[in-house]
């Protein structure tokens, strides 16, 4: 890990049926097992139709180990009938997801549409 923000995962109850995981620091080969454990624990306590939100806004580094955790989370959520939502995906993280071919798998259509629309609206002044 680098000397940045220490790795943490805070779990919050959102509206009924929604759990929020607020992730901070580096998600790398050192911290990915902890994140994998938290995701697995929370997924085990959700019911079909519930939502697991992973907030990546505080993530400084997301390496292949971190991507692996997100893939695992998506596969488990699909199997369990739980919606997985990524929140506060940075432009750099989205770029990594696109280059690895994971954007369509991990990001919902609304997020992709908002990101595609955002720069155009900014350039038009809207």
UniProtKB/TrEMBL annotation:
<dbReference type="InterPro" id="IPR002645">
    <property type="entry name" value="STAS_dom"/>
</dbReference>
<feature type="domain" description="STAS">
    <location>
        <begin position="16"/>
        <end position="123"/>
    </location>
</feature>
<dbReference type="InterPro" id="IPR036513">
    <property type="entry name" value="STAS_dom_sf"/>
</dbReference>
<protein>
    <submittedName>
        <fullName>STAS domain-containing protein</fullName>
    </submittedName>
</protein>
<dbReference type="InterPro" id="IPR058548">
    <property type="entry name" value="MlaB-like_STAS"/>
</dbReference>
<dbReference type="Pfam" id="PF13466">
    <property type="entry name" value="STAS_2"/>
</dbReference>
């Amino acid at each position: 890990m680098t000397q940045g923000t220490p790795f943490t995962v805070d779990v919050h109850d959102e509206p009924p049926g929604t759990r929020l995981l607020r992730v901070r620091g580096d998600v790398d080969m050192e911290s990915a097992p902890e994140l994998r454990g938290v995701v697995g624990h929370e997924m085990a306590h959700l019911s079909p139709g519930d939502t697991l939100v992973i907030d990546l806004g505080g993530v400084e580094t997301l390496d292949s180990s971190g991507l692996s955790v997100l893939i695992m989370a998506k596969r488990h959520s699909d199997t369990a009938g739980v919606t997985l939502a990524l929140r506060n995906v940075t432009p750099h993280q989205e770029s990594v997801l696109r280059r690895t071919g994971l954007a369509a798998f991990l990001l919902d259509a609304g997020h992709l549409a908002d990101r595609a629309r955002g720069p155009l609206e900014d350039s038009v002044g809207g």
